[in-house]
Design brief:
Elements lengths: L4 E6 L10 H10 L7 E6 L23 H12 L2 E5 L9 H13 L7 H5 L4 E7 L6 H13 L4 E8 L10 H10 L4
Parallel strand pairs: 1-2, 1-3, 3-4, 4-5
Helix pairs in contact: 1-6
GO molecular function: oxidoreductase activity
Keywords: Flavoprotein, FMN
Protein name: Flavodoxin family protein
């Protein structure tokens, strides 16, 4: 039995229970994972992620997170693979995933957590959709740089044409690429 556990972190600002183009493409990629691979889907836009307060250059310290943030940290640590599911918003990552990644700065400094060492080796992927591929490049670069900083293998970016609901389903190139995307790292 495999011990693979994929954590899908969706960041669409769409209404709850609406599957947009990016999530649809990620679910298409996930559909091709072996049956014994565990999948956890967390909708970051619907999580109570507080603003990150940077206290590393003041007298403050970073305590272990509590409540829902502790659950999110634990889900992150429990995963063997992380998949950022992020539509392109203004040429960048959506607010929800950016807020989540900002908290990594604090988690890196929680005494005894050893966050960076525990994340090293876990592949990081990005699934994204938008009007034009070139407009997704800043978010692709951001995700790849996060992976490099954390010593996480870069699993790559899966991009598809977004826009109106269900637009990505007509992007045959993206749908075909989804089939083996999550097994590349």
């Amino acid at each position: 039995m495999r011990n693979d556990h994929y954590l899908f972190l969706t960041a669409s600002a769409r209404e709850p229970h609406v599957i947009g183009n990016t999530e649809w493409l990620a679910r298409e990629a996930a559909r091709h994972l072996p049956d014994d691979v565990q999948q956890t889907w967390v909708h970051l836009a619907h999580e109570p992620i507080p603003a990150f307060i940077d206290v590393r250059h003041s007298a403050g310290s970073y305590p272990a997170p509590e409540g829902r943030m502790a659950d999110l940290l634990q889900a992150t640590l429990d995963a063997s693979h992380l998949v950022l599911v992020c539509p392109v918003y203004w040429f960048s990552l959506p607010t929800a995933v950016k807020a989540y990644l900002d908290h990594w700065s604090g988690w890196l400094r929680v005494p005894g957590l050893d966050f960076k060492a525990r994340m090293a080796g876990k592949p990081l992927y990005l699934v994204s959709t938008g009007g034009e591929r070139r407009k997704a490049q800043p978010s692709i670069d951001a995700a790849q740089l996060c992976a490099e900083f954390m010593a996480m293998p870069w699993g790559g970016a899966l991009w598809g044409k977004g826009g109106a609901p269900d637009a990505v389903q007509a992007d045959t190139e993206a749908v075909q690429a989804a089939a083996g995307f999550l097994q590349r790292a």
